[in-house]
Amino acid sequence: MKQMVLLGDTICLGYRDELRRWLADRAYVFGTPEPITHSADLLRNLGDWVLAGQPDLVHFNCGLNDLALPPGRSRPTIPLDRYRSNLEQIIHRIRGESGAQIVFATSTPIHEERYSAGANLEFERRNADVLEYNRVAGAVCQDLGVAVNDLYATLADADLDRLMAADGLHLNTAGYQLLAEQVATFLTPYCDR
Question: Looking at residue 179, which CATH number applies to its domain?
């Protein structure tokens, strides 16, 4: 049975238990008890969160919190050039220190109408930024030969109104089930190698 690390933000935590059920006979899926904050957080804690577990496979995502614009600031939490550099370093370290297969998952869409209607917005987030961060991540992954699991497309091709939670950022049960199925389907060939 494969040892698989699943790392990401709150979206990832939302589908992790369902993914474990989908892959129960193929992989032991583990990860952090709390969501990662952003790419710099993942890079800083890579040794403890990924490498110490000696995984065969790493499925990770970061982006939605990287692109978040804090109140009163004109730059995102992790600017795009630093995001690119962080992803490159994360991938190089995983490859160099573990030899695990790596899959990057794109960030999921934001339902802007619901998100902007939220009364307690901590951060500004725009779907255009999600697309730009996903584009940069895709280019990094292509350059470094890393597979990309396009979770953005999975949701964008579906009925977002039916799958998104009221906050416009997170998903409801049906949305998380769809992502768990997508991730399981994408990872099954890696688990069966």
Answer: 3.40.50.1110
